[in-house]
Structures are given as structure tokens and as C-alpha cells.
Amino acid sequence: MISRDVEIVDIDPRLWLNISSLWKTGAVPGRPPKNANVISILHEAGTVLHTYVPESYTVAPVQRIEDPRTLAEKLFHQYPGLDGVQILEKTSLRDFSVNVQKSDWQKMSYDEFHVNAYALAGQDTRLERISPSFHPILDGDSTQSKRRHAGDLPECGAVVFPDSQTRR
Amino acid sequence: MAIKIDPSGILLEDRQLPLYSGAVHYWRHPVESWKTILENIKGCGFNILSVDTPWGVHETGPNIFDFGSHDPSKDLDSFLRLCGECSLFVIIRPGPFHNADIPGSGLPAWLTQNLSLAALTALGTPPIVDAFPYPHPIPSLASERLYQEFGKYLGMLCPTILAPHQYPQGSVILVQGGDTQGYFDRTDAYGIDYSPSSLVQYQHFLTEQYASVETINETYGTHYASISEVVPPKGSASATLENLKWTMDWVAYKEHLLEAYSRRIVTLLRNNGITVPLFQVSDSMSTPSKHHVVIEKKSEFKGIRLHPSLDQFRRYTNEIRFICGTNPLAFASDFPQGAGGFASSLASPAEQEFFILTAIMFGVSAFDFRMLAECDDWTGSPVTRSGAIRTEYGGMLRKLGDFLDAYKVLESRKVSNALVLINSAIEQYRSAATNSDWPYLDLLGVPKPQREPPPHFNFSVDPYPESISHPGTNWISELIGFLESQQVEFNLSDTNVPIGVLNKQKMVFLPTCDFIQQAVFDRLMDFVQRGGHLIMGPSQPSLNEHFQTLHLMKAVLNQFIYKYERMEAPGTVTMGNGKVTWQSDISTLRPLITKEIQNPVQLNNPNLRLTVRDGEHQLIFICNPTDQQQTTNIISTQPLKGTWNVQDATFTGIFQSVLNPISVQVWEAIS
Lengths: 168, 671
Prior knowledge:
The complex is a heterodimer. Helix content of chain A is 35%, strand content 16%. By secondary structure, chain A is an alpha+beta fold.
């Protein structure tokens, strides 16, 4: 439930369930949680192509994007309870997909690959993402950090973090 | 062959054996714990193990094989011998591709690092899978080198290790030969594969379809000098019918490539001494794959990976109905047990019981679970890594297994009174019209419908939203809701369904757009001529797959096989011994629902679902998929005896029952 580097020895599976929900994460650090309340606007050179609004929210239509950052912050503060706002320029989506796959994947672990992907997204000013709640205690960190944190959990059983990748 | 597959499972000589199995990864357990693990798996009610034999685990470097010579836990021969000693039959899953719970997707790292084998995206990059523990490119299914290398591995695995363990001498009774895993979820039309070897296969495919470059030019409106010049589309082109045909042919080619891959794997297995029946596995009903293709004329079957979900319960039940409508043996492959490194949640024993029983109630008759024994970061399985039974999960399976045995549940079959077809023409259209399903956008949480609006053609009905995978309402989703509300149980299949299956149906429902494959239309008209009732909507097809006029009649030697008269307005016409109904408004179909096609037992609570399984015992399944307790009247002319999750008493007429949240009750009809 955490990573292939964590070997669960004798912890009740349901406890793992709880730990996992505490971490609000799948295996991908930084990934928005499933069913997150995110307003997502796709535009092409400022012209809005599509606006995705989560159920139970009514958002005034946005026709044109002039300043993505300001608009994202405005929307995020205007609608309480949102998990995030993202304003995405159409061509940047394709570029993001290409750049992730052009990365130096041969030298990367699973974690590093994702950390790099989010770094690429963060560097692209055409991908404006405001998502503070995607970064609770551990989201966005590597499995290394999660290991350290899991090792600190009090009295919940034994967790072994093998250094080697044997038996795989 | 001593082993046969039938709708009830596996027939070993005269012994009927339900296909009820689960996975164990022997190489992830110390040899000294194997025996305890196997004995306790047997103790949980299993007689069959499924055993992945990953290529990457056993060929650790080019031509460096380890079947126990270096790492004792890779001694497959000893493991299989032990299975036999524990009276466990075995299913072998040799790959080459495996699920995410096996590192590197089961492929050798030395192989995947070699980019000459890789598929290519439309943008010329290798498609990288974010697999544990390291990312890797997707190999091209058109790569000859892939088959050469895998053939070498099978040459070490099959003749000397697997073949001697085959039934009747040994315990191996089935082998998996092919799957749809090869696209690694890149099932969108323009994701992969644009590698040089794939382009050669694409041009061969076009040659088979069109025979000459002149026909291709006529169809596509192009001016190629030879077929070897034809390039594939890299996105849905401008909205002309010529471009639409070009892009839909590319979608069809990708299905063809998967089929060709499965054939190659089957040939490799047979050439390496595998004689037991083979089976294939699909990722889902919407995976581009020819679900009805027969790879070889031996007893074989196909499983589908089910994804149990309370949030998407209707989709889950439809996947099950698709398994039933498409396969003689309704086989749920890779059915979850426990959770691994990719999961963020773990089903409780009660939820697992619910998922298994609902799979059965909607028609599954065969299971392969993953995973039966915990290993590494996998947890929540019935057997722990030390080999002990994890009481709450193992106990649930034991109890459930006893019930399934006592009532011969898996040998029975769900009663289905109608067949709903997924229209492959609509599905191919949707795939061809989806332009920007680029990988890794899910990392950003970009909603799929947002990525790009589909093109529009001058059709009377837009095919795009009529797809089974469309998230909103459409004709087929309204139909399914309507049938469920009328308590009519049905199966799902697609328009490639053989005529023999069609002719067993009273009613067949078909979502339609303006075009349909001529061969599919002919087959459906044949079904009607023989007395079937075809109900279609929202459109009445008028074009064939080439967007030319659909032939509405078929004659041989001046004798009409069928002659269909187009309707001017929605309604019903008789044809031969049957009827055709064209109706865009689902609510008007109510008069079609007769007692004849309703379940013999009725409920008055619309939140509940009910199905019947017929066999040695007639069993009535009622499930409550909601998180609230539900009360219902059960109306039955036959006495019903409580058998699962209900008091052991017999009732008849109208009586009340209370169902706990997320639970299944089973009653036996006493004749």
C-alpha cells in the first residue's frame, strides 16, 4: 500500500487502510485525490475551450483568460471547499505528455519519474495549478520521506524497510 | 484432449471442476514456507492455483536463466511438484506481460532498456510506463525481436519445466496465451504504435482490407503510388468521411495487431510443447480488442479483468454482463484479493464477500483471484506471507466456498432474458474521433471530456455520445436503466457476436447511428428472419462501414434471405418470423416487457437488484448496493428458502425481507 520498498510484517490490513487514507495518496506523490473538487479550465491562447466544474458548484462562465494566475487564485478563494483550480493552455498538455516521456527515464526510479513529471508541470507557466490541499503531510514527497514517516508511527506494528530489492 | 472447458468450468476426463483459482508468487516466498502456504490456500477452499512465471524473474540477463540454480525461490519445477503433492491443479500465466503487481510488468529490464524493441508514440517518443520499481518503454507488439526473445525464454520454460507437469501426468491444466495487456492502457487510438515495424504491419493490414492502392486512394481520397507509402493518422483529421474512414481503419488495425500478437503467443506456446487448453484475458469490455475472435479451434476461452466498485456499481455489473454475453464460460480474471502497492484502499472481508457474490449473481461462473498469499507490500490476502491463514479473509472465503460447493453455484448459469449489444461501429468511431488522450494527463487531473471536443459530421445522430464509455446519458445507458427498473435481467455483448449466440435470444437491443458494418446488419437480419426481435435506436442505419448505401436485402439465387423495409417513423415492422423495432424514446418500450422476460420473482424496492441462477438448485440473488438498510416485499409464486445471509426458513407469496447495506441475500426456489 505504500511502496515496494516497504515490507509489511504483521500489521492488520485495516490499519494500513487507515494509514493510507491519512496520507490521502495512491502510489503517485502529488497526484490529486480521486473525486477531488477541482475547477479545470482549458483554453487556447486565452480563448476558453472548456470549463470543468465539480458537481455541487456553480461557477460564472469564464470567456477569456488574460492572467491565469490571478484568475486561479480568485476562483480558489471565491469558492470555499475547492481542492484546487487549474487553468491549462491546450498546447501545453501535449507538450507535458511528450516532455514526461522524453525525460531521462533510464536513470529514474518510479518515484523520481513522478517527481520529475510534477517538476516539469511546475516549470510550465501555461499549466497554472493551485492545489494546496494536494500537499498534506506527505503528498508530493518521495517514498523516501514516507518511509521515514511510517517508521515513526507509534505502536502500530512492525514495518521493515529492506535496503535491497530482493524477492522481486 | 483430456481437458475440456464448458460453461460450468473445467472437465477433467469425467470430473467437473469449477474454475475457482487464485495467484501465488512463488519467487517472492522462501522455499521453506511454500508448503504451509499451499496447504492453507487449500484450506481456504481452493483446488487450483494460478502461477505467473514472469520472464523478467527468470531471465535475469540476456540468455542468463535462473530456474532455481542461483535463487532457490525461483525453482519452478520444485514448486509445481509441490502443488501436485498438495493436490492443487495449476494455471500457468507465462506472460510476456503481467500486471502492475509484478515488477517491470514482468519484462526483463535488459530487454526493455533496448529501444529498438519499443513502440513509438505519434510524436516519435518511446511510450514510457511508470511501472515499479523503474519506468520502462512499452515494447512494440509488431517487433519481431520481441517474439524471438520471448520464444527463447519459452524454449527454456516450456519443454523441460512446464510440459512434464501438464495434465494428466502433472497438475498444470490451463495456460494463458495472450491478452490485451500489451498496450499498457494506451488504448486510445493515437497513443501507439508508430514504430517502423508497426507501420509495416499497418500496411499489410491495409493490403488485406483493400487489395490495391487504387482502392485505398478511392476510399481515402488520396494519391499514393503504392501501399507502402500510406501513412497512419496521428489524430482525428478534418471532418470528412474519407478522413473518418482512414482513422477508423487505424483503430481497426490496432485491434488486428492485438489479435496478431495473441496468435503469435499461442503459436509459440504450442511449438514449445504446451498441449493443455489456452485462454486469453482482456482488460475490459471497452478495450480495443476483438472479443469474439477464435485464435485456434480448440477448447479455449477468454477472461476479463473485473474492477469491483461500489462507486461505479452499474459499470461493474455491466462488465460482468459483458463477460456472460461474450464467453461460454463467464470468467473473471485477476479478481482482487487484498491490495498492493498501487492501492489506496482495501476492501473489508464483508465488502469482498459482496463483490464476489454480486459477480456471481450477475453471471460469473469462474474466478481467478489475485493474490491469495501476501508478499512484499501486498496485504489483506487470505494467507499471510508466513503461510498462516488470515482468519477474517480466509474464513470468509472458506465459508463462501462451502456455500458455492453445497449449492453447486458455479455450475449453474444466470437466467438472462435479453441481449444488449455494444455497437462496434460506434465504439470505433468514438476511438477515432478522440484526438488528445495523451498519456500522463491523469497526473494533472485533467478531466477526459475536457481535452478536446470531438469533430462533427453531418449524421442524423452524433455517434460520439452513443458509446458505452460515454459518461453521460445516452440510448444504451437509458436502456440499461429501463431494463433494470423492469427487473429484466440481460447480458451484454458486441456486434461481432456469432449468429449461434444471437439465435438463442428472444430480444436483442442495439444502439445505432447512421452507419453499421454490412456483415453485422446481415447477421442481425438473419436473427430476425428466424424469429428474433431486434430493438434498435436512436437511429435507423442507412450507411455501411464505407459510408456507402447499406444493402437492405440479401438474396441468393433470386431467393430473398431477407428484405428489410425502411421505416418512415419509429415503430415496429415484422420480417420473416421476427420483428424489428426502431425507437429513440426508451420509455415507449414498456409494452415490450412481458411476464415472459421478467424474473419469476419480483421485488418492490427499486434500489435492490435481483437475478436468478438455474442449475441443480434454482437460486434467487438479491443485492443491496446502497449504504442504507433496505426493506422489500418479495413476490414469488414458488416457496423460497433462505440460504445465504438470511434466516433458514421458507416463505411463499408476498413476504418482507430486510437487507443490510452492501449485502447479498440468496434464496433457493423450492419446486
